[in-house]
Amino acid sequence: MLSQSNVPHPGNLAAVIVTFNRLDKLKETIAKTLDNAFYRIVVVNNASTDDTAGWLDSLSDPRLLVIHSETNLGGAGGFNLGFAHVAEDLPDADWLVCFDDDAYPESNVVDTFNTLSIPEDVGSLAGAVYLPDGQTISEMNRPSNNPFWHFGEFLGTAGKGRMGFHVSDDAYRSETPLDVDTSSFVGCFIRLANIRKGKIGLPRSELFIYADDIIYVLDSRRAGFRHWFVPTMRFRHDCETLINQQDVYHPLWKVYYTYRNRLELFRIASGWFFPLVLLIKVPKFFLTYRHYEVSERRKFLEITRQAVKDGLRRDFSRRHSEVVSLANLEEGR
Prior knowledge:
- The chain is 39% helix and 17% strand.
- By secondary structure, the chain is an alpha/beta fold.
- It has two domains: 12-242, Alpha-Beta Complex (Spore Coat Polysaccharide Biosynthesis Protein SpsA, Chain A); 253-326, no CATH class.
- Helix 8 (212-222) runs parallel beside helix 9 and helix 9 (253-270) packs parallel to helix 11 (294-313).
- It is globular, with a radius of gyration of 19 Å.
- The two termini are 39 Å apart.
- The relative contact order is 0.14.
- It comes from Seongchinamella unica.
């Protein structure tokens, strides 16, 4: 555990939200976000085809800035665009916090942020993310340590599974920040000076969706900056469909991004252990076919083959329309 040092608070906090065709959820997200005293709120509309654009344009709060993308850039591309806008066009913003259109901050997040004293070597923060009931931890957003950077955690995974290197439930009940290695983009705070000075980059838009957030925070850690888990900054994420943690994705085109990007994540996280990780993880990718309908399995295996091929070659050039065509499905999210 870490104590908060007596370093002056850094300044204005902006929010970045990426949305695509989830207007009902977005309305709640915007309402909850506006309830907080954010300096600015940047919403990236990822070429939504529902009524999102018109509804966003009807809002009049002066803190709200809307960017309408001409194409669907995915979550990674949307956050890339939003981060760049804040870093380049909002010079008075000192930090940003990002989250999806189905997530939102609780009412006191900015107030809690304003009480923190954040050392200069802390480049990012992770809030505590719960399901909509406000009591159940959102497992997909549980921060973690990289087991390949911490031998004790690496050994712990043998007997504890993912809890050998993920933040414990006790840490969520604490009021003290905790050093971790990575977290999701739901409730992730970034020190903007590190982007502006070129010490870290922007989210990797070529990843489109999945693992872009974990990779981004790991890259910040590799650049020498600490990442704090701050349990008193609470967010909620409406992701009940993922509670069971089953590795099944629909539409099937999501399988491609899942496995291609995981290979990039494993490469970054594991370093010299990457060949060993491949031997363990890649067979598990293909064995997931058992969880799909019989009619889907052949297509799943072909998409997974392409994902592994591109991931091993670090080829991120495949356009989203090509990925969708692998599954013979119309574009969705």
